[in-house]
Amino acid sequence: MIQLKQLSFSRGSKQLLKDADLTIHAGQKVGIIGANGSGKTSLLALLRGELNADDGELNQQLSLAYLAQDIPQENIPALDYVLQGDTLFTEVQTALQIAEKNHDGMAIAELHMRLGEIDGYTIPSTAAKILHGLGFGMDEITQPLTAFSGGWQMRLNLARLLLSRADILLLDEPTNHLDMEAIVWLEDWLRSCTQTILLISHDREFIDHVVTHIAHLYHRQLKIYPGNYSDFEKQRAEQLAVQQASFEKQQAQRQHLQAFIDRFRYKASKATQAQSRLKMLARMQEVLPVQIENPFSFSFKPTQAAGNPMITLENLRLGYGDKTILKGINCSIRQNDRIGLIGQNGAGKSTFIKLLAQELQPLSGMVHSNQKIKLGYFAQHQLDLLESESNPINHLLDIDKSITEGQARRYLGSFAFSNDDVFRPVGTFSGGEKARLVLALIIWQAPNLLLLDEPTNHLDLEMREALNLALQDYSGALIIVSHDRYLLNCVTNELWLVANNTVQTFKGDLNDYQQWVLEQEKIPAITEKTETSEAPIEKKPPISKQKIQKLEESIQQHEIKLKELDTALNDKQLYHESNKTKLQDLLTQREKISQKMQKLEEELLKFYED
Fold first, then answer.
1. SS3 sequence, 51-116?
2. pTM score, whole prediction
């Protein structure tokens, strides 16, 4: 159990918690939400013991594991690095290696028995399953850590965390570097695990599917709500409605009291009553009026009709150099289309978007574009194109010199750039602030074709919700790549699947796609992974369920035999000199069964690859 009692906590001069109370019970999966800067990540650091409270009590005696943000630059294989996440398994394995080196028969027997007790013989296969679920191919798990780019290294850290036996898992934005397929797998894993989870995420669909409770950090207080994020929204709305009614009732009461005071406070016969009401008014606890909590409020301008079709693609082939990423593309985009592009990372979604944005020329085929298209294109690399020495005001004036500074300030204020923020150098901005500015600049220009490639990566829940609402009212054509399923569900009415080197309409909604992903049980053949490059997906044949079941049953039977041998080896009489032959025979049997089980596990892992 985690318990905060009257806890106060500051970072620098900013107080994040004041006399806050919170209780989290074992097994609960808690989503921590709150505005940017409210202290969510600092709260996790407090629980880890990296920061100290100013006052109050923090009771937490359980073991913790958290998602590390860096990775050692070592040449150990990815699988070995992930296995280190299970510290108990690692300790026993290390001790076993030492015992075998020293030919210590008794220690070897005891350690093998210990491995059986902690299910240590299944740990490597579990680690491989986790890596598979997070998108790693079987040929990759033996590659060194240095072979992976930053985003894939973060996936290795996530895999290492999931293998941990810690009582509590602290997850701070675990989906940041995941595609939709990996997110779907991760949801399923977290729902089935028995550990307590504290989760920070800006992906409301992910929160909805994982958590059992919401801890809301608001006005330096923590309040826990049962249910997921959607349940929280309903409870919060009801709470705010009650608060508004209480405020209105209190205001009427205050006005009545004030009117009595103003009328009679200087009359001797009523002075005592007036003073009494004056004290009552002073003691009355003020109920805050309900305010619009989202600091963002913007919308798209009306768009100019371009006519149909806007873009037509004929027998298109796309790629880089002599490498083909997509081919055989034949489709049209019309002015009322609202299309979500789905498919695994590396399948070519960004490549397709770049073609539509005219940042990439086709290797072959024809592109017919309407001359009335006014393009709005958002991609992550555009955040780096902002001038670091400039500020939001100047960026907006650069694209529209006709507006006044006052108009620019009011518009930027709707994206929460207020006061001196509009004059701050962009070089000091966070990723979220840069993303907001790029979106603000695009929206101001009233595009009639909007191409969005992962627009929510750096955005918090409030900004995501504001963008969601704005896109629902957008009147132009929209094509979007996003792993934010809530956003896709709300703003698109058609899905195009990018897979197997082509683009085609997906018959179904996101729920159908998620089910399709879970049923595929395939591993993508990826030869190189970077943050920007994309490689084609290789279709894998379906895996035989019967073969997997037979292998798993055989492994279980060998585990039973190992446990029986471990029990026999636990007999202290065996280690007398007179029983030396029997002991050696049991150890030999155990070694043979252990080797056989290892081969079965390797066969099971290779079966996924086939």
1. CCCCEEEEECCCCEEECCCCCCCCCCEHHHHHHCCCHHHHHHHHHHHHHHHCCCHHHHHHHHHHHH
2. 0.69
